Amino acid sequence: MMDTTRPAHPTLEQLRAVAQPPEVRSRKNAEHWTAELYLRHISIYLTSVLVRTPISANGVTGLMILSGWAISACLLIPGIWGPLLAVFCSQLQLYFDCSDGEVARWRGTQSPKGIFLDKIGHYTTEGLIPLALALRCLGGFGLLGPDPDRALLHLAWFHMFLGALLALLIVLNKAQNDMVHASRALAGLDKLPDTAAAKAVPAATLVGRLRRLARFLPFHRMLHSVEMSLLILAASVVSLIAGQPTLGERWLLYVLVPAVLLVNIGHFVAIMASPRLRK
């Protein structure tokens, strides 16, 4: 039920105390790495505007979902402007993603439905971006003529397959974390705290050593919508400089598929080696 005791026009200090408590700001994995850098410092201003309107927290989550889907739609625009717009939409998605929780905490309307909608938003957004990248790659094959070359058609299907495979691998990597929580709940275990200690792998083991090495190249961070859109923007700049449409995007697709496969394998091994699934 909505908390009606709080002011309808709160100050920023009042909002921060309720909407951004220390237990939220200190979350290790639920917060994007830009949260402390700039995200939470700016999102509170957006939340300050939103709590003065009738929009619900789930309504804000809906805006997060739409802005996430807009990333992929923008990537279908040829040239450099599509990726630039995609980067803008990815930042917009981040702010709505922060503000929906802040609005819910201020109004006291946190609910499983809101968490569910948030998951829908992230899974669909990050699953659609690789498909949009693959479709973007097709723009460099000249397939729009009346009689396209058969070899180019086969190449186009190959890129669509790579895009679908990449989407599956990215969604699977996200799902592994949710599988841990679901497995613990079904086994009657307590909720896993969002701390580094709860997910730590013994340092003396081979997996622990590999995880320490992986910190120098945290590729798993590149699989979020913000980072993916920035990578695609960089790839489109390469295409522009090279004078070959979608050259950079195609090579990005070739690199991402095996890299994300390795990330999935490493994630699975790390989960199995950590105390996350132990009683």
Automatic annotation (TrEMBL):
The keyword Transmembrane helix applies. InterPro entries: CDP-OH_P_trans, CDP-OH_PTrfase_TM_dom. Pfam families: CDP-OH_P_transf. The chain crosses the membrane at residues 60-81, 151-172, 222-245, 251-273. Keywords: Membrane, Transmembrane, Transmembrane helix. This is CDP-alcohol phosphatidyltransferase family protein. It comes from Arthrobacter hankyongi.
